[in-house]
């Protein structure tokens, strides 16, 4: 199920490179999908900001995400692959990050830490050479 309406996506088909015989030379199976994040009415502003950060090098200066799909030999499967990859990106951007609330250590935990430090210190000092007293 797509999170973004089909009318917001723009597809361009071209011939993919690599092996494949006559099929590569004749059929435009590769897909380049464009999605205008900045002007999309279906996403909220925080999701847009996270999606643009997540897109990285796939984002143009105009705020358009370019996804190129060439994995499969048919146009339909490449198109579905591009949509699925965009959906995964939107799903990841939709998750609101959890911020850590800083807390102070309790008095008992400070005392426990100091006690273990002193115990460790005595253990380590006992490993040295014996004194000639």
User: How many beta-strand runs?
Assistant: 3
Task: Give a short account of the largest sheet.
Answer: 3 strands, antiparallel
> What percent of residues are in strands?
5-15%
Q: How many H/I helical runs?
A: 4
Assembly state (oligomeric): single chain
Determine the structural class based on helices, strands and strand pairing: alpha+beta
Evaluate the radius of gyration. 29 Å
Termini, distance in Å? 82 Å
Shape: elongated
Indicate the percent of residues in helices: 40-55%
The helix/strand order is: EHEHEHH
The low-confidence parts are none
Strand order of the largest sheet: 1-2-3
Mean pLDDT: 84
Short recap of the structure:
By secondary structure, the protein is of the alpha+beta class. 41% of the residues lie in helices and 14% in strands.
């Amino acid at each position: 199920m797509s999170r973004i309406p089909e009318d917001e996506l723009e597809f361009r088909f071209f011939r993919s490179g690599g092996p494949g015989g006559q099929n590569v030379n004749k059929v435009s199976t590769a897909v380049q999908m464009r999605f205008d994040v900045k002007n999309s009415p279906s996403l909220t502003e925080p999701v847009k900001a996270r999606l643009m950060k997540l897109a990285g090098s796939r984002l143009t200066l105009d705020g358009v995400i370019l996804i190129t799909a060439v994995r499969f030999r048919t146009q339909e499967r490449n198109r579905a692959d591009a949509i699925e990859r965009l959906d995964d990106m939107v799903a990841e951007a939709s998750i609101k990050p959890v911020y850590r609330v800083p807390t102070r250590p309790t008095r008992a935990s400070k005392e426990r830490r100091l006690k273990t430090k002193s115990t460790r210190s005595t253990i380590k000092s006992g490993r040295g050479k014996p004194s000639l007293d």
